[in-house]
């Protein structure tokens, strides 16, 4: 009887070891599946964010190019001349050159 009891105890221990190993293996497989799903979702989300940032980059580059061409066009001499005429500036009829020897804004001290 003791022998039968010992055989049952040994049988129970081997069955317990096998089932605990199987249980741990299923936990590991489950964790691996959950981890794979989580990282797949993270990669997909990052891909969507990257695509949105690429669209914004292209839009900003196009806007920058448009603004650069507008700046070049509006600061050209012909555009400035056209704007000055519309603001009431005219070309001078006569050009006056000032020499260094003549006082421009000097005070005549001979009267004091």
Explain how this protein is built.
The mean pLDDT is about 80. It is built from two helices and no strands. It is rod-shaped. The chain is mainly alpha-helical and about 110 residues long.
List the helices and strands and how they pair.
Elements: H1 2-74, H2 77-86
Brief description of this entry?
By secondary structure, this protein is mostly helical. The chain has helices at residues 2-74, 77-86.
Spell out the key features of this protein.
112 residues, mainly alpha, 2 helices, 74% helix, 0% strand
The fraction of residues assigned to DSSP E strands is under 5%
Number of strands: 0
Q: Please give the radius of gyration in angstroms.
A: 45 Å
Q: Which percent bin holds the helix content?
A: over 70%
In DSSP terms (H or I, runs of 4 or more residues), the helix count works out at 2
Query: What is the general shape?
Result: rod-shaped
- Average pLDDT, rounded to a whole number, is 82
Q: Spell the H/E element sequence.
A: HH
> Strand pairing plus helix content: what structural class?
mainly alpha
């Amino acid at each position: 009887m003791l022998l039968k009891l010992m055989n049952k105890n040994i049988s129970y221990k081997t069955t317990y070891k096998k089932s605990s190993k199987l249980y741990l293996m299923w936990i590991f497989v489950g964790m691996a599946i959950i981890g794979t799903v989580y990282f797949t979702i993270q990669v997909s989300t990052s891909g969507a964010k990257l695509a949105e940032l690429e669209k914004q980059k292209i839009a900003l580059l196009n806007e920058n190019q448009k603004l650069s061409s507008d700046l070049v066009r509006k600061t050209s001499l012909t555009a400035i001349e056209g704007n000055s005429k519309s603001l009431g500036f005219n070309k001078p009829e006569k050009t006056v050159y000032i020499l260094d020897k003549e006082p421009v804004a000097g005070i005549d001290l001979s009267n004091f």
